[in-house]
UniProtKB/TrEMBL annotation, chain A:
Annotated source species: Brevundimonas intermedia
One Pfam family linked to the record: Response_reg
UniProt keyword Amino-acid biosynthesis, yes or no: no
Name this protein carries in UniProt: Response regulator
Matching Gene3D superfamilies: 3.40.50.2300
Domain of life the protein comes from: Bacteria
SMART domains: REC (SM00448)
SUPFAM superfamilies named in the record: CheY-like (SSF52172)
Automatic annotation (TrEMBL), chain B:
Domain of life assignment: Bacteria
Modified residues (Phosphohistidine): 47
Protein name stated in the entry: Chemotaxis protein CheA
SMART domains xrefs: CheW, H-kinase_dim, HATPase_c, HPT
Functional description taken from the UniProt entry: Involved in the transmission of sensory signals from the chemoreceptors to the flagellar motors. CheA is autophosphorylated; it can transfer its phosphate group to either CheB or CheY.
Pfam families associated with the record: CheW, H-kinase_dim, HATPase_c, Hpt
Enzyme Commission number: 2.7.13.3
Stretches the record annotates as Disordered: 298-324
Alphabetized InterPro entries for the sequence: Bact_Chemotaxis_CheA, CheA-like_dim, CheA-like_homodim_sf, CheW-like_dom_sf, CheW-lke_dom, HATPase_C_sf, HATPase_dom, His_kinase_dom
Gene3D superfamilies in UniProt: Histidine kinase CheA-like, homodimeric domain, Histidine kinase-like ATPase, C-terminal domain, HPT domain, SH3 Domains
Catalytic activity: ATP + protein L-histidine = ADP + protein N-phospho-L-histidine
Domain called CheW-like: residue spans: 604-740
UniProtKB/TrEMBL annotation, chain C:
Descriptive protein name: Chemotaxis protein CheW
Span of domain CheW-like: 8-148
InterPro entries: CheW, CheW-like_dom_sf, CheW-lke_dom
Amino acid sequence: MKKTVLTVDDSRTMRDMLLMALEDAGYHVIQAVDGIDGLETLAANGADVVITDINMPRMDGFGFIEGMRADPNHRTTPCLVLTTESDAEKKARARAAGATGWIVKPFDPAKLVDAVRRVAA
Amino acid sequence: MDAFEAIKATFFQECDELLADLESKLMLLEQGQTDLETINAVFRAVHSVKGGAGAFGLEALVRFAHVFETLMDELRGGRKPCDTVTIKTLLRASDVLADHIQAAQGLAPPVDEERSAGLVHELELLTHGGEAPPVVEEDEDDFGFTPMAFDAALDEPLADLGGSGEIEVAASEAQTGWRVLFKPHSRMYGSANEAGLLLRELGRVGPTTVSVDAENLPTLDILVAEEGYLTWTIDLTAEVDEKVVREVFDFVEADCDLTVSPLGGAPALEFEEEPPAVLPASDDLDVAALLAKAAGAAPPEAPAPAPAPVAAAPEPAPAPAPAPVPPPVAAAPAPTTAPVPPAQVAAPVAPAPVTIRVDLDRVDRLINVVGELVIQQAMLSQRVLESGLARSSGIALGLEDLELLTREIQDSVMAIRAQPVKSVFQRMPRLVREVADMVSKQVRLVTAGEDTEVDKTVVERLAEPITHMLRNAIDHGLETPEDRVAAGKPAEGTVRLAALHRSGRIVIEISDDGRGINRERVKKIAIDKGLIAPEAALTDEQIDNLIFLPGFSTAAVVSDISGRGVGMDVVKRSIQALGGRISISSVPGKGSTFTLSLPLTLAVLDGMVVSAADQILIAPLPAIVESLTPQESDLHYVGGVDPVIRFRERFLPLIDVAMTMGFRDTPVVPNEGVAVVVETEGGQQAALLFDAIQGQRQVVIKSLETNYQQVEGVAAATILGDGRVALILDVDVLVTDMRRKSGRPDFKLAS
Amino acid sequence: MNEANDSQRELIAFRIGRQEFCVDIMSVREIRGWTPATPLPRSPGYMKGVINLRGTVLPIIDLGARFGLETSEPTARHVIMVAHIGGRMVGLLVDAVSDILEMNDASVQPTPDVASDQVKTFVKGIFSIDGRMISLIELDHILPQVEAEAA
């Protein structure tokens, strides 16, 4: 069965790029536009892997990951953070919040898919 | 268009939205609303532009956005104040950012480097608080915003980790393998990483032999499922760089003890698909020593571990069930990128309204078909009426309902194309800043009614006249700061741009609190240019409206800022081309207000149905002032030939439309017809002579150019209830055409 | 396919006065009876005006007048051929549609010099069927603005 990836990003461009790369790699993709939408989508649909942006309106990526980890159903769902290489601090914060790993922007589709594969059970 | 190009197009679309958002948030900052959420919103907009630009390798854009973003980061961190100077700089930076985006799209030439560099410098100065110029900034390349820089970005810090030169040497000597000591901390499990997956990943690099040290494993009664009790020893037989091995542990390096050392060749147990849960230790390595060494080699970028998150706190066994299998999702992923919120949104924050993106072509096709429906319905009604059916008959009543439904469908369909004028209004603050700078005036722009909706085509065509009138207001309307202060006004002038709905039309008002129109000067110019007779007695209102006369504006009165060589007559003409009207009112010393009103859509038109020489014609209602039956006493003939008619104490040229259009050769006797007074560009009036007026109705506009070409004196066509085509008159052309022969009698004959 | 193989084409033949013309059947969308047109101001004499064709405003060209022939006022017996010309839909007013022909390109002869210049602008060639002479019309130059550009 296809694995489902939830992408949480407020940028349509980024959502589109993730969608294209992941669908090409055979994943089923569901999307959310910010942290709150992400938690709701996750609760409603579940996901095998989650990819989230950090800077988003309403609820940012840290809040989203914390919220996700607080939910017993998604405590062990792998979650990758989209970040920029310069953000060592963000990586640390994301890790502290419970992120499984990160994807450095701008990403190339092969690396993205590789990262998803690595954390997907 | 391939998928990549399509996403790029999406990106630029999104950029437009981000820029609009950026602008409006900056305006809020400027108005003193410097709360964290507003600053954050600005940060996010710039950040998103940068993110997308990076993905498409738009380097100039990335670089500029990066500097912008860095300052925003300082501001939102509270490390730098969000003061007036900063906000002004941010506003100008947003202008340059917009230009970079235009350039990246190929819509504009590359941004002037000096201008861009100048702002980069200003932004950096603000970022670093005017301290010693930051040498480090030269290292911007570090940010890895070269497209597809993933490899480098991942590798470099890891290569640093490798540390000792020995390992580098060893690696280059065709290393036969690596021994990896790996002791996960509990936190690693808390972030949903799994030792098994990491071992699987290492297995992809080369053949592995795995053993596990379970010595620290407590008895089951006190075992905490997510505590890290085990230490794995993995021998990897593969000729790879150490960094390849470390890369596998990239995500967890801060959450485990990890050592990687060249393989000595000690045999170990074979690793089978799944790591055995508990295996006896097969090696007596000094783990503690190794751990200490590993700690020393901790990556510099990994900070001291933050407090463990709630989720990672020890919990009573048993461990939760494996991640639930998501229910099969029946619906295919939506092809559009529109957010699809869950069915029930209980969040306190207002959810964004559900929207879909639709090709404009599809909407237009729908509008077209609905137009046909309206016509067909009207034709059917007329046929039924002609057939002599009683008005109370079932058919007639059903038709009435049909008519109501048809109208409703038409309104609903038109509403699809309706857009708030916001998109145009948002471009204006920048314009105002630039023009104000150019003429050294202080200007505050106040906008109102941005959410007023109007047809997309109208919105698009509003930008130019509004731009023009704002320029005019700043350049001509407002005084210099000195003059204003001398006149007892604040040095900063105010220009107000407002939109509102009024009786089925949209009204745009542009007002300034400047000096008002200098009527003496305007009148003198008009006389000098021969636009009015020197002795003409004009009301204040008439004088004010002289500025719309063609030929009034010249380089002498219109600077390059407000005019670009184009006069207000052109503005008026472009408004009228949209079926709109424009007027000005002015109070000396207090300021001027331009008011323009436009139809809400260009697909239908309110028209007066008239007949002339057996032809049915439509006169656009917005151009009509009044209709009257000519009285013999009001008719005169200039030079005994050209007919004029007295209207409100002025003589207007009387144009026999059927003659002018070549529908008949002999003029109609004026007092047997009906005269319709129309107003054209420059506020000039004329009377059109028809045979009869048949009524008023809304007509669907049909282009003649689709299958034929433009026809002089005809703006468009429509289809009448009886199925025949009727022409919609181009009043301006009709009147100016006549004027070439008859001159400008309306002003010269003013009594 | 057929066209490519043997240059065999189907043509619609029609009459204006006593002369017979034809056009490629592919360019004719439909044929309908004459309905009074709404005249357009200041147009060439051969522009009869515009009619409503199911919601589309269709310009009507009096083809005979366009060729410089003498024509009379159209009556209910006249016919409008709705043709596709360079992305536009145009109605061509003719006396009557007379035939559907199959013709081989090879049988077309060049327009003889005796024809007037105005005719030669539109006539691509002539051929004979059953002793009738039929002129093959090139529709590309029928619309007035093309003429304006050429002038």
